[in-house]
Each structure stands twice: as C-alpha cells, then as structure tokens.
Amino acid sequence: MNADQPDPFVGSADVLRLPSHSASVNQARTYVKDVIKSWKATPTTDPGVPTSEVVTNAIVHAKSEVALRVRLVDGHARVEVHDDDPQPPEVKTGDPHGNGGHGMRLVDALAACWGITSIEGDGKIVWFDIDLDIDRGVPKPSR
C-alpha cells in the first residue's frame, strides 16, 4: 500500500496483506473460505472464483501489495480487495474463447453484487458480495 496514505482498512480486524505474487491468489481464496466457515455459514456460490479474479486483477494491474478483508454485511459475505491502482476494472464483452479479459464477467455472474470504491490518492477497493445460507445459527460478524 502507499506508505504516504492512510490504510483504508485501519482499525479492521483480520485484514490479510498479500504480496504482488501469483501465490497470493490461492492464499486469498483459502482465507475467504475460512472466514465464511468461521461464521458457520455456507456460501450459495463458490467465493473462490470471484476472489481469484479480483486478486489477480490487483496483482497484474496494480503491481502492489494487496489487502483483503471479508465482512458480514446484511447476511452476505462482502469481500474487499484494496490495491494501489486507481484504474477501475472493466467487464469486457470480447471473444468468449479468447485469452484474458474474462475475470470481471465471472465476478459479475457469480456475485450477488459488486462495486468499486475509489480512494483518493491511494487506489481503490473492488468489492463483491456472496449470498450466504446461515442455517446453523447467527454468525458472529467479528471480521
């Protein structure tokens, strides 16, 4: 993250910081699944695919450390990925058989909703929500 700017996740518990490296994608997927499991909730869609796509975009385009946070918001798992690049991701409508450019289409298809929060002078947060089945009690929104 940009050392001259405040951390957008300051004060948040359990923020995972990852280097700009391909191995970070798997760590991010595991982290998101583990947080949701700790709430005793079941995602209605696999959160791994959209997590991979958003984290990969951050690694490829921002080339900066990535910060990942998962929160319980209105019965959804909200996955937030912060990077230093102010440029928002695009949902491309290109060749479905071509290489690359499909990531945000997958996020759009799999997430309940998604969006971008610009942070002046410090990149952006790309976030998405995954619906949850909470049938074993109310999860504790500790994250």
Which stretches of 5+ consecutive residues score pLDDT under 50? 1-6
Distance between the first and last residues' Cα: 20 Å
Write down the overall geometry: globular
What fold name stands as the CATH topology?
A: Heat Shock Protein 90
Give me the count of strands. 6
Q: What is the CATH domain class? A: Alpha Beta
Query: Which sequence of SSEs, written as H and E, runs from N to C?
Result: EHEHEEHEE
Going by helix content, strand content and strand pairing, the class is: alpha+beta
Number of domains: 1
| Largest sheet geometry | 6 strands, antiparallel
Specify the oligomeric state.
single chain
As a whole number of angstroms, the C-alpha radius of gyration is 15 Å
Mean pLDDT metric: 85
Helix content range of the residues, please? 25-40%
Specify the CATH homologous superfamily.
Answer: Histidine kinase-like ATPase, C-terminal domain
Q: What proportion strand?
A: 25-35%
CATH architecture classification name? 2-Layer Sandwich
| Helix count, DSSP H or I runs of 4 or more residues | 3
Could you outline the blueprint of secondary structure elements for this entry?
Layout: E1 16-18, H1 23-38, E2 42-43, H2 48-62, E3 66-73, E4 76-83, H3 103-110, E5 113-118, E6 124-133
Antiparallel strand pairs: 1-3, 2-6, 3-4, 4-6, 5-6
Structure, explained:
- This protein has a single domain, classed as 2-Layer Sandwich (Heat Shock Protein 90).
- The chain is α+β, with helices and mostly antiparallel strands and 143 residues long.
- Residues 1-6 have low confidence and may be disordered.
- A hairpin with a 2-residue loop joins strand 3 (66-73) and strand 4 (76-83).
- It is 27% helix and 26% strand.
- The longest helix has 16 residues, at 23-38.
- The chain is globular, with a radius of gyration of 15 Å.
- Helix 1 runs antiparallel to helix 2 (48-62) and helix 2 (48-62) packs antiparallel against helix 3.
- It starts with 15 loop residues before the first strand and ends in a 10-residue tail after the last strand.
